[in-house]
Design goal:
single chain, mainly beta, Lipocalin, five-stranded antiparallel beta sheet, four-stranded antiparallel beta sheet, 2 helices, 35 strands, about 35% strand, globular
Length: about 525
């Protein structure tokens, strides 16, 4: 067991390269993907703060009490070389897709069958999806990942698609008349959701995000549809945030928020402004039988005099159950957990680097606020610049707040905010806490590099070298897993599901194609 007095990034055993890596040189026997290069350091979401200087071997150390979580909205694409055509497992060149005009041919994305054939002893079973949807020549957002029954469902461009969790086969898809522009983080308990799509099929400026459509994620059947008709300026429906709480859909846009019945799309109530209209709702969060509304309280032109506020409302009636005000000069950042309520706040005058984590009790009273910056965490920090939910890569469970980062993951105590323990990687690999296992250990996803696969493992405060691999990801899918760095993750029944948060439709800008979705599960004995 490591000395409790040593720093939390104390050096542990060196990380060993993966033996038999087919990507170590171009044209290896399973060379499905882009050519291998050293992994570039992923850029931080807000471009602030240096990477902790002491990037050392995978480590662990016990420190006094606490808990934390990780997040992530948009990611910067890692820098990569121009891709070449790569041979399939048989050595025959058969790339998918067509070459970009005047550019190199697009890389071959392996089939699930090819990945299985390339699997080495001890590696997990995996499936991969190659979505050949014709995308606009721009950066396209990949929307929230929903797990409903035995399917993973997601929206990209004009299509909502369900994939079977056991093998990645497409179960159903819904094609919309225009591109999806907003989705709630969670569906209803029975698997229904409302997607928002643009008013027109084009991508020109002025295209409103105001079309609502209910979809049953279990079957793909479409229900009611209507135009978003909140009060206010109809011509300013560009940024829309939504959340589902039980059978209530809440929508916030342009300083106005309103709720609808999921059953039929009828209006329920408008979420009021407060403090003589100076506190205006700007975002909503749901997912359990509670509804949270964040507000900006714009008291003065001077931002240092303004503050943020969060309320819990009864989803059906709109009654305010409790209200929590941030201190003057501070605003609501990102939501880490709905139950208990855990979120970040940031200083209005330094929204990029001055931030804290706040925990409330069930009645909305302040429990603790703590600063995770001294341990190098930056996820969910500052002004989210988008939906407050979800703060991806973070987690709360079994008395822990779990936080990850570019090369580290740590746990804080939910009640006290004290730091408990952390682990650091020798490489710039993203570490994502997936869930708390027993109040002392965490299930962690370690992201891939361009040549080395990721892994899913359990680790707690017993020390470096005691981690236990739960899922050993295959080498054959490493480049595609790397593409999904900082993306959507879901862990269900021992299976990890990964997707990107953005994909490029511009073949000249990015001349290799990206896999649509990846999933890993322990191989059957």
């Amino acid at each position: 067991m490591p000395d409790p007095q040593q720093p939390w990034y104390a050096q542990g055993p060196p990380h060993q390269p993966v033996p038999g890596n087919p990507y170590a040189s171009e044209g290896g026997p399973q060379g499905f993907g882009p050519p291998t290069v050293p992994t570039p350091p992923p850029r931080h979401r807000f471009g602030r703060g240096p990477v902790v200087a002491a990037v050392v071997a995978l480590v662990l150390v016990v420190v006094a009490g606490g808990a934390y979580a990780l997040s992530d909205h948009w990611r910067d694409e890692p820098a990569k070389p121009v891709a070449k055509e790569s041979p399939g497992p048989s050595g025959s060149a058969s790339p998918s897709g067509s070459p970009a005009a005047g550019g190199p041919e697009l890389s071959h994305i392996p089939t699930t069958k090819e990945v299985a054939a390339a699997r080495k002893p001890g590696e997990s079973a995996a499936w991969i999806v190659d979505d050949k949807t014709d995308l606009p020549k721009q950066i396209n957002k990949v929307h929230d990942l929903w797990i409903v029954g035995d399917t993973a469902v997601q929206a990209l461009h004009r299509k909502v698609t369900a994939y079977r969790l056991s093998d990645g086969a497409e179960v159903w898809n819904v094609t919309l008349p225009s591109s999806v522009c907003e989705t709630p983080a969670n569906p209803t308990p029975d698997g229904r959701v409302v997607v928002f799509h643009h008013e027109r099929p084009d991508n020109n400026r002025g295209n409103q995000c105001n079309q609502m459509r209910m979809i049953d994620l279990k079957t793909g059947e479409q229900g009611w549809r209507k135009e978003l008709d909140e009060p206010g300026d109809r011509d300013n429906t560009f940024i829309v945030n939504s959340a589902i709480s039980g059978d209530t859909l809440a929508v916030a846009r342009n300083m106005v928020a309103i709720t609808y019945r999921m059953d039929d799309g009828s209006k329920l109530y408008e979420i009021p402004r407060e403090n003589k209209n100076k506190c205006v709702p700007d975002d909503v969060a749901g997912g359990v039988a509670r509804l949270l509304v964040s507000s900006d309280c714009m008291i003065a032109i001077d931002r240092s005099k303004n503050y943020g506020q969060v309320r819990e409302l009864d989803p059906r009636s709109g009654k305010v159950l409790w209200r929590y005000r941030m201190k003057t000069g501070w605003s609501f950042g990102s939501l880490i957990s709905m139950d208990p309520v855990v979120f970040t706040t940031y200083n209005n005058e330094d929204s990029a680097s001055d931030w804290r984590i706040t925990v409330l009790d069930p009645g909305g009273k302040h429990r603790t606020t703590f600063d995770a910056r001294d341990k190098g965490f930056e996820q969910c920090a500052g002004d989210a610049g988008g939906n407050i939910q979800p703060c991806r890569g973070s987690g709360v469970g079994k008395g822990l707040i779990m936080l990850g980062a570019t090369d580290q993951v740590g746990a804080y105590d939910l009640k006290t905010g004290k730091f408990l323990w952390g682990v650091k990687s020798d490489e710039l690999r993203r570490l994502y806490p997936l869930r708390a296992e027993d109040g002392k250990s965490m299930l962690i996803y370690e992201g891939a590099t361009s040549s080395r696969p990721g892994r899913t493992f359990v680790m707690g405060p017993r020390g470096a070298g005691t981690e236990k691999d739960v899922v050993k990801h295959p080498v054959a899918t490493a480049p595609y897993e790397y593409e999904m760095s900082m993306g959507h993750t879901a862990y269900v029944d021992g299976r990890l599901v990964l997707t990107s948060t953005i994909v490029s439709g511009d073949e000249k800008r990015k001349p290799w194609r990206e896999a649509r979705i990846l999933s890993f599960a322990p191989a059957a004995p």
